[in-house]
Amino acid sequence: MDKNRYVDLLVDFSFKKIFGTDTNKAVLIDLLNTIFEGKKVIIDLVYNKNEHHGDNQEEGTAIFDLLCTGDKGEKFLIEIQHSKPSNFKKRSIFYTSRLISEQAPKGKMKEWAYNISEVYFVAIMDQKETNDTADKLISDGRHLHDICLCYRSTGEIFYEHLGYTYIDLTNFALTLEQCSSKLDKWFYHLKNLQNMASLPNGLEKTIFELLYSIAEYTKLSKEEQDMYDEALKRKWDNVAVMTEARESGEARGRAEGERNKALEIARKMKADGQPFELILKFTELSAEEIEKL
User: Fold this and answer.
1) Which of 64, 72, 56, 62 is CA-nearest to residue 29?
2) Strand partners, 63
3) First to last CA, the chain
C-alpha cells in the first residue's frame, strides 16, 4: 500500500486515535467549538465511554460520548460520531434518547424532577446518502445542517437544549485557498489531510499545526500502523462495494426507464392501429410484451 505522510482522519482507527484520546482532546475541543460557532463554548471535556454502543459490529462507526464543561460552568453531553449514512436519522434519535434516559437516577425520580443536561449530537459523514428518501437530508447541496426541535407552524424553537448537527463532507468541495473561515478549514482537513504534503503556510501556531504533528503516519507504532492499514483497506473495500452497487442501481434504473418509454410508445402505436411488425421494429420489445398491452 502506498503510504501518505498523514493519516486519513475519516478512517475509524485514525478518527478514534486523533479525536478519541485524552491526550488529544484539545483538538476535539477546538473542532467542536468551531462547529458550535459560539452557541456553546467548551473549556473541558471527559470521554465517558469511547464507543459505548457495541450493539452492532457491522455499523463500523466511531462514536464518542462526551461530558463537556462550558465557559459558564454548565455541563452538557455531546455524542459525536463518524458514521455511515444508513438509518442515521433513527440512530441519531436513538443515541440522544439514550443519553437523556441514562441521566435518570434509580428510584429518585420525584427528587430529580427531570433536571436533564443539554444533549447535542454531531455526525460527520463522508459517504453518499442511501436511496432511502426517509433518511435523506435537504438536497440543496449544503454540507452543514443544524437541526433543533421547533414549532412546525412558526419555526419558533420549542426546546433549545437538544440539537443535531450533520456534516456532509460529500457536499464540501472548496480548495484550501477558498476556505475563508476556520470552519471551512476544519472541514477541508477532515476530508483531505491524507493528501497533504506538509503544513500549509499561514497555519503555523494554530490548532492545525498540532493536528498535523499528531496525524503523521510515522508517529504511529508498528502495531498502530498495521491497524490503520487494515482499517484503511476496509474503507477502500466498502467504498468500492458501495460504488459498484450505486452504479448497478443507476444502470438498472436507466434500463427500466427505457423499457417503460418503449411500452408507452407501443401502447400509442397500437391505439393508432400501426402494424405489429412496425411496433416491433421501433420499440425493440418482444412480441409477447406487445401482445399483453
Assistant:
1) 64
2) 81
3) 56
Indicate whether 6 pLDDT > 70: yes
CA distance 293 to 30: 64
Cell of 181: 473561515
Cα separation, 128 vs 136, in Å, equals 10
Q: Beta partners for 68?
A: 45, 76
Alpha-carbon 191 to chain mean position: 11
> Residue 231's CB: how many other CB atoms inside 10 A?
21
d(CA 43, CA 185): 21
- As a whole number of angstroms, the distance between CA 104 and CA 107 comes to 9
Tens-place pLDDT, residues 50-71:
444 434 444 456 788 899 999 9
Model's pTM, two decimal places? 0.76
H or E segment at 80?
strand 75-82
For the chain, what are the domain ranges? Answer: 12-220, 222-293
